[in-house]
Amino acid sequence: MPAQPFPHRLDLAIPLPTPQLATVAAQALAVDQDLNADQVQTVYTADGSCLCVSLSAANVRILRIATNAMFDMLLMVTNTMADFADESPTAVAAA
């Protein structure tokens, strides 16, 4: 019998300056697995210049915690991309 989907879900579309940066962010964030994989699932994809994030969780508390963790990691990734863009004359600067 297939596993039941988690009942609580949050879908986000986060605009980034370029499709390349959205793809890089999705790949960087997807590397880390969810700590409580039995209670939460996070999927990162790029759709044009949007980073799409889908979080599903067993309860709203776990969804809130996973959402906060995702935004912390996203902030680190976007800050890192901005730092590298500042150092490279050919890179597209992240806004």
From TrEMBL:
N-terminal signal peptide: none
Give the main localization category.
cytoplasm
The processes (GO biological process) annotated in the record are: tRNA processing; tRNA threonylcarbamoyladenosine metabolic process
Ordered alphabetically, the record's keywords are: Cytoplasm, Nucleus, tRNA processing
Membrane-spanning intervals of the chain = none
Entry superkingdom: Eukaryota
Cellular localization per UniProt: Cytoplasm; Nucleus
Q: Which GO cellular component term is one of those annotated?
A: cytoplasm
UniProt-listed InterPro entries: CTAG/Pcc1
Q: Which family does it belong to?
A: Belongs to the CTAG/PCC1 family.
Name-wise, this protein is CTAG/Pcc1 family
Recorded source organism is Dimargaris verticillata
